[in-house]
Amino acid sequence: MALYVQAILGFFLVLSSMGVIFARKPVYSSLSFLVALLMLAALYLQLSAEFIAVMQVLVYAGAILVLFIFVIVLFQDAHQKINLYAPKSSPILIGGAVGLLLASYIYLASKLKGIFSSQEDLPPWFGTVEALGKALYLDYFFPFEAVILLFLIAIVGSLFIAKKER
Q1: How far apart are CA 107 and CA 88, in angstroms?
Q2: Distance (Å, whole) CA 8 – CA 18
Q3: pLDDT, greater one: 50 or 21
Q4: Can you say how many angstroms the Cα of residue 2 is from the centroid of all Cα atoms in its chain?
Q5: Which residues make Cβ contacts (< 8 Å) with residue 28, sequence separation at least 6?
Q6: Spatial separation of the C-alpha atoms in residues 67 and 114, rounded to whole Å
Q7: What pTM was computed for the model?
């Protein structure tokens, strides 16, 4: 049963992620991103990582997505039409790609049964704040700090780009 729930959540996660890429308007892309984040949080809940699921919703869906929508609305010129996409693709091609992704996902999920652990196999400390803190600040300290530095560089770079345009 848990495998089917994960497969369904994964399918909707992939579908909403494709909505992020193929949406014609940036606001619709952000809303598809919201659905993708909620599906990921549901997957975390299904894997007994409650704290990570709550932080996913609060931090990403709550704060970062609101920031994305704010920036989109702020910098979108009312007379400017944004065209980020290549020529229109055929709906049959997109439907076939979604069908192929779904079929391969179901096939791999059925063949790799050991990859999805059930809740009985998890240690009692799995998904706790203490385990997450130890993993981030002991085992993965340098990659964690590198990501923080990358975010800082991206924010400063976007400020310079926005300042040059004015």
Answers
A1: 30
A2: 15
A3: 21
A4: 21
A5: 19
A6: 38
A7: 0.55
Identify residue 124 by its one-letter amino acid code.
P
- CA distances to 30, 57, 90 from 61, rounded to whole Å, are 10, 5, 31
Scan for tokens 């909707």, then name that residue: 12
CA 10/CA 95 separation, integer angstroms: 17
Residues composing the chain: 166
**What are the φ and ψ backbone dihedral angles of 38, each rounded to 5 degrees?**
-70, -40
| Cβ-based neighbours of 56, under 8 Å, separated by 6 or more | 37, 40, 41, 44
Q: Which amino acid is at 101?
A: L
pLDDT digit string (tens) for 108-164?
666 665 554 455 676 777 767 788 888 888 888 898 888 889 888 887 887 777 776
How many Cβ atoms are within 10 Å of 85's Cβ, its own excluded?
11
Tokens representing 6? Answer: 């994960």
What is the Cα–Cα distance from 143 to 151, expressed in whole angstroms? Answer: 12
CB atoms near residue 47 (< 10 Å):
19
Task: Dig out the tokens for 5 from the structure.
Answer: 């729930």
70/90 Cα distance (integer angstroms) = 32
